[in-house]
Amino acid sequence: MPYSPIGKSIQVLDTPALLVDLDKMENNIQKMAARCRDSGLHWRPHAKGHKTPAIAHKQLRAGAIGITCAKLGEAEVLADAGISDILIANQVVGREKVARLVNLRRRADVMVAVDDPVHIRAISDAATDVGVNVRVLIEVDVGMKRCGVPPGDPTLALARQTHAAPGVVFAGIMGYEGHAMSLDDAAKEAACRKAVGELSKTRNLIEDAGLCVGIVSAGGTGTLAFTPDFPGITEIQAGGGIFMDTYYRDGLHVRGLEHALSVLTTVISRAAPDRAVADAGRKTTSSHPSLPEVKDRTDVVVTGLAAEHALLSLTNSDIEIGDKIQFISGYSDMTVFLHDQIYGTRNDRVEVVWDILARGKKQ
Ligand SMILES: Cc1ncc(COP(=O)(O)O)c(C=O)c1O
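That is the input. Now the predicted structure with pyridoxal-5'-phosphate docked in place:
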């Protein structure tokens, strides 16, 4: 029998190892699902952070209507894991990718963002060739100035073109208020109100023109406290909060969710009385500026990361070489994709080991 850590203490795991506290993650999933449900909205959580179909299935079991992802390759992995209602919240461009998209449509009811007639023509041509219909959402720029057509008439014009194109189904609109995520509460509330207002007005304009806007999608973990309260949207994309990290807490002011994701590390050096080093650096914990935090210890603080080293500052600490400590993730979105597997734990015992199946699916 091959070695299995299942049922054993996390202390037996070799390091660095990525852990998720299942009780905490499941609580976060329930809270995020309830936040959407209580606001009368559907939840379509973004999976770009976890990249793991088993976690997507937990979100669906908690009431999510479908899954959002960033990449076509992620959508293919989710589809092959039995998930059908998938939004790729990005533009899919290039002959090969569009061919994959329309072929994916045979095994999943995939939906994709567009913001230009070029996208619509390419999908329409490929979809009619293969004999499928692909749902599209028109991405509206609600102030982030990333992708997206301006709200109002330009979106209406694109909606009309989408509606007229064979092989393409106009399913609705989406707008990501990413510019609001890091604002303080008062400014964030105002920015969310404005963003949702733009989406709502645009939806009314399109419906007045006789087209049905089935979906109005918005939201991220950083705006979950506000965006669902404003009328006009139908679903929320917030996803990463299921892991909750120090960036969500300190950078995006997210509250009410528990830190679930950590990297288990080993102390490899105690080179000075007030300094130690652990075996998890940027290549394991993330290269994001938000530093990880040591779980359940006040005597050890992460002060810096090199590629493969974490510098630890010690205060009256009895920590020794070989000790294992957990780093609460600095930014989970930039942590998970560095690992092959994630250990699901309960009460510090390993319950399950998941392959991070959409890891590396960048195309
Ligand atoms: C299109 C889109 N939707 C939603 C999100 C929010 O993701 P999360 O809730 O994981 O922070 C993002 C984050 O980058 C995004 O790009």
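The chain has two domains: 10-18+256-355, 22-240.
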